[in-house]
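Subject: for your reference before the review

Hello V.,

The reviewers asked for a structural picture of the protein, and I figured it would be easier to keep everything in one thread rather than splitting it across files. Below is the amino acid sequence we used in the manuscript, unchanged from the supplementary table.
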Amino acid sequence: MRIKLSDHFDYKRLIRYATSAICMMVFTSIYGMVDGFFVSNYCGKTPFAALNIIYPVIMVISTVGFMLGTGGSAVVARTLGEGRKDDAQHYFSMFVYADIVLGVTLTAAAQLLLPEISSMLGAEGEIFDYTIIYARTVLLSTPALTLQFMFQTFFNTAEKPKLGFYVTVLSGVANMILDYVYVGMLGMGIRGAALATVASEYIGGVIPLIYFALPNDSLLGLIKPSEVKFEARIFFHACWNGISEFFGNISAAVISIMYNMQLLRYSGEDGVSAFGVVMYVYLLFGAIQIGYSMATSPIVSFHYGARNMKEVHNVLKRSLIIIAVASVAMFAAAELMSGVIARIFVSYDQSLYELTHWAFRVTSVSYLFFGFGVYGSSFFTALGNGTISAIIEVSRLFIFQVLFLYTLPEFFGAAGIFYAFMLAESSGIIISGIFLVAMRKKYGY
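And here is what came back from the structure prediction:
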């Protein structure tokens, strides 16, 4: 039976509704890991370090999709909850067309400034050459990537989470197969990995665009561009509401750059490569929490729009319990699998393997806590409070990261960089808890 946003959600229904979104986000992370696997094992640690150095730039551009997806879906779901379906369709269309324009504009700017950006990130010599090769190619598909990230959220709002999952699987499988062909069989190196990514991102971005442009049985559909009126108030409200995801992803990208620069300073390209592997797994486990938060956010928005605060409270309470159980499971899995994962990526270099294995053991502690920060930010976005949502994200992903990143290495050397990551991520549960308690009376949950 199809689950609707207007339903009452018990544990089983919440997990069922969120499963497709979780799988979608996990699969997205996995095929990103595949790029790293092929580059590391077939091209070597220098191209792998280059990929990790330039990757945050791609994520900066993709933040447009996250911002309009999360902020826009909250607006659209709340509008649907108020019974204004025509307005919801109009807002949805406006957000999609705005995403296309912003994605193309930011991509063009990145292409023009790429050499300067690479130098600023600390890329020199061979690493600089590899960053240019990889980024020039991957930037060809970043407008499609922003659409892909935006539609990942809107599929849940449209009550079509499974369709979103299927598109992501198709995109991911294409990337994996093409990585094997271009890098493994044809020996095209880091450029081949980039071409595989380009193809997969167009699949992930264009197929949903076609689906929503054609007649469909979901809650949402695209209106012709000529019939869409740009409503600045609604657009900027959605941007502000999604500002936490924007700042969160910007902060994560900037912090990744800072980590890479500190690692280059304290432990060279081995440190960058080890941190890159840690981040792949972090993104994989983080995808579980992000996918769950992304799936349940439209539910909260819908019932908040319908003024059904009893259901909002129900979803919040059950979600916190689900996240707690998942967090413990992820910590245990990370501790048990750390050696295996490190060997998959860097078995060709014993010293790099040992550093990566140790880094996993240290950073896995953060898995016990960071899910609460992710959900807390998403919950306030769903309620339309982008300010609190942004404070949670920026504190967790930037302020505490910078504080620990530039103090702990002075005492612990390169090890302090990994301690910083673990401690900063663990701060999310404290910040989210403070706001959830402080805002309870205001929102009635």
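For the response letter, the relevant points are probably these. The chain is about 85% helix and 0% strand. The longest helix spans residues 243-305.

Happy to draft the paragraph if you're swamped.

O.
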